[in-house]
Amino acid sequence: MPVSSLFAVLLVLLGAAPALAETHEVKMLNRGATGAMVYEPDYLAIAPGDKVKFIATHSTHNAASIPGFLPAAAEPFKGRIDEELEVSFSEPGLYGIQCIPHLAMGMVMLIQVGAQPASEAQIPAQLPARARQRFEQIVQRATQIP
């Protein structure tokens, strides 16, 4: 095969890589399977490059990264209240996500990007008690997933 043909094949394969990324949907709910003020699902294990679409189902919710609970090289994000938000997660690691108005009520979720296990989550001590408790429950469930 001529070099130019190999180069063309390589370009096609590299160009197809972003198309392999998945988009995962997370609903922001007043009430869900695990209680009140929840993300559903509240735990995702995704690949680097995948996207998460946060879907507002009520006018008081948002999705935002938790300062100090995301990989060092990751960009923080903060969605507006009652607004759908799509975030691309390219940096491997563990991301704590909050609904800012309902953090004290424990409206949080955990996103695992890549191979770092959820059991290594370092839940920030300054979080409200209900948020810390929910994160502990999420981590416990995540470690039981085969």
UniProtKB/TrEMBL annotation:
Cu cation binds at H61, C99, H102, M107. Binds 1 copper ion per subunit. InterPro entries: Amicyanin/Pseudoazurin, BlueCu_1, Copper_blue_Plastocyanin, Cupredoxin, Pseudoazurin. One of its GO terms (molecular function) is copper ion binding. The keyword Nucleus does not apply. Its cofactor is Cu cation. Keywords: Copper, Electron transport, Metal-binding, Periplasm, Signal, Transport. Residues 1-21 form the signal peptide. CDD domains: Pseudoazurin (cd04218). GO terms for cellular component: periplasmic space. Its main location: periplasm. Residues 27-113 form the Blue (type 1) copper domain. It is found in: Periplasm. NCBIfam families: pseudoazurin. This is Pseudoazurin. It comes from Phytopseudomonas dryadis.
